[in-house]
C-alpha cells in the first residue's frame, strides 16, 4: 500500500469535498427559499392560505397529531406498503423463477405479460373492490397489481441473461435446474433484484395511495381525498409532505439493505 | 491397464435453427487409467463437443461413449463465482453433488493447502491472479474426486508466461493425484508437452487424424523440461506437417 499522498491528490480530494458541500448548501437553500416564500406570501396575503395552506399550518397539523389521528393513518399506509411490497417481491420472484424454469411456460405467457404490463392497473380498481372487498385487502391487491408484472418481467429478464458459462459449469457437476437457480441464477442477479426493489417501493406506494383513494377508509391517501372534500388544505398538504418523507425513507431503507447485502456477499 | 474411456464410432450432429452442423464423425479411441491425453485440432473442429460428450452434457447422434468413472470438467473460463470466497467456490461442486461432508471438505481444504491457496481461502476471486484463479477452478473440480478429468483450453485466458507455469503446475497436480485426463488445447506445443498421448482432429467434421504415443526421457519430465527434449521438436514437426495449415 502506498501511504504517501501526493499534493495533487490532496488538492483533488479537497476540491471534490468542497464541491460536495456546495451542492448540499444549494439544495438546502432551495428548500429553505421555497418554504420561506410560501410562508411569506401566505402571511402578506398574496396567496390564499385557505387554498394553498402554509408551512406554519402544516407544522401545526403535524404537531397536533395526537388529536387528528395522523399517526394511525401513517401507520395504515406504512403497513399496507410494507405488506404489498413484501408479497409483490416474493411472488414476483417466484413467478419469474417458474418462467425461467420452464421455457415453454415463458413463451406461452409472453403476450399476456406484455398486455398486463401495458394495461393501466388503476382501471382494475372497481373489479378489485368487488372481488376482495373494500378494505385494506383491496389496497394491498391494488399495490400488487401495479408492482407485480414489473417485478416478474425484470427478474425473469435477469435470470434469463445469467452467464451461460456459469450455468454450464454448474451442469458439469450435475446440477439440477433448481440447484442452478439457487446457486447461480439468483445470486448472480442480486443487482437486478435491488434495482427492481428500488423501482418497486415507488410503484407499491403508487398502488397503495391509488387504492386508498378508491376505498377511502384510512391511510394518507384517504386523508388527502377527505381533506380535499372538506376543503382542509392543511390536511392535504401535510399528508402529501409526510408521504414524500415516507417514500424517501423507504427508498433509503432499500439502499441501506442493498449495501449490507452487497458487502456481505462481496467481502471487503 | 483399465480402460477409462472409449469412443466407438461416435458422430454428433447439432440441430440448430439455421440448419445442421456436423461436429464430429466416426470418432474412435480409448483412454487408459493414469493417462494424460491431449486433443488438438483447428478451431471449430469439435473439441469442446468431444468433452461435452464425455461429460454427458450432449448425447451422441451415433455410436457409443463408454466411461468408467465419474468425469470432472474444467471449462475454458474459470467461472469462479465472485459472490463466494475462494473456499466457497471450491466447495460448490461438493454442494451441488450433495457430497459436502466433513471428509470431503477436509480433502478440499487439503488441496487448497497443497496448492498454495490456503491463505487466500477467504478472499474473493477478483482479488486473485489469473493463475491462482485457474488453480482454484481446478481444485473445485478435483474436490468431487473425479476419476476422469476434462480440461477445455483451461489456460487460454492466461498470458504466455503464466500459461507455461500453470501448465507445469496442473501437470504436476494431475500426476500427483494420479488422474486420468483429456486435455483440449489449440496450442500444439502445449498439447505435446502436457500429455502421454496426443490425438489430432481434422477440421470440421472432426475425425481422428493422428493418435500417437508421446515418449520423453525421463518419462515423468515436467512440461517445461519436455520442451527442451529433442523428441519434442520431432513430435512438433510431425504434427505441424500433418496439420496441413494454409494461411
Ligand atoms: N449447441 C450447438 N448448436 C449448434 N452448433 C454448435 C453447438 N455447439 C457447437 N456447435 C458447432 O459445432 C462445431 C464444433 O464446435 P466446438 O465448440 O466443439 O468446436 P471447438 O473445436 O471446441 O472450437 P474452438 O477451438 O473454437 O473452441 C462448430 O462449428 C460450432 O459452431
Ligand atoms: Mg472449444
Our Rg estimate of chain B from Cα atoms comes to 18 Å
- CATH class identity of the largest domain in chain A: Mainly Alpha
Structural class of chain A: mainly alpha
Beta fraction of chain A: under 5%
Largest interface: A-B, 21 and 22 residues
Q: What portion of residues of chain B belong to β-strands?
A: 25-35%
SSE diagram, text form:
The complex is a heterodimer of chains A (268) and B (247).
Chain A: H1 7-43, H2 49-52, H3 55-63, H4 65-68, H5 70-101, H6 103-118, H7 125-132, H8 136-160, H9 164-172, H10 177-185, H11 190-215, H12 220-229, H13 233-266
Helix pairs in contact in A: 3-13, 5-6, 5-8, 5-11, 5-12, 7-8, 8-11, 9-10, 11-12, 11-13, 12-13
Chain B: E1 3-16, E2 19-32, E3 36-40, H1 47-55, E4 62-67, E5 71-74, H2 86-90, H3 92-97, H4 102-114, H5 130-143, E6 148-152, H6 160-176, E7 180-184, H7 188-194, E8 197-201, E9 208-213, H8 223-226, H9 230-243
Parallel strand pairs in B: 3-7, 3-8, 5-6, 6-7
Antiparallel strand pairs in B: 1-2, 1-4, 8-9
The structure holds adenosine-5'-triphosphate (ATP) and magnesium ion.
Task: Describe the protein in words.
The complex is a heterodimer of chains A (268) and B (247). Chain A has 268 residues and is mainly α. Chain A folds into two domains: 7-47; 68-266, MetI-like (MetI-like fold). Chain A has helices spanning 7-43, 49-52, 55-63, 65-68, 70-101, 103-118, 125-132, 136-160, 164-172, 177-185, 190-215, 220-229, 233-266. The relative contact order of chain A is 0.11. Chain B has a domain at 1-69 and 148-154 and 180-247: Rossmann fold (3-Layer(aba) Sandwich). Chain B has helices at residues 47-55, 86-90, 92-97, 102-114, 130-143, 160-176, 188-194, 223-226, 230-243; strands spanning 3-16, 19-32, 36-40, 62-67, 71-74, 148-152, 180-184, 197-201, 208-213. In chain B, the strands form two sheets. A six-stranded mixed sheet of chain B has the order 5-6-7-3-8-9, sandwiched between helices. In chain B, α4 packs antiparallel against α5 (130-143). The interface between A and B is medium-sized, with 21 and 22 residues. Bound molecules: adenosine-5'-triphosphate and magnesium ion (MG). Magnesium ion binds at residues 47-48, 152 of chain B.
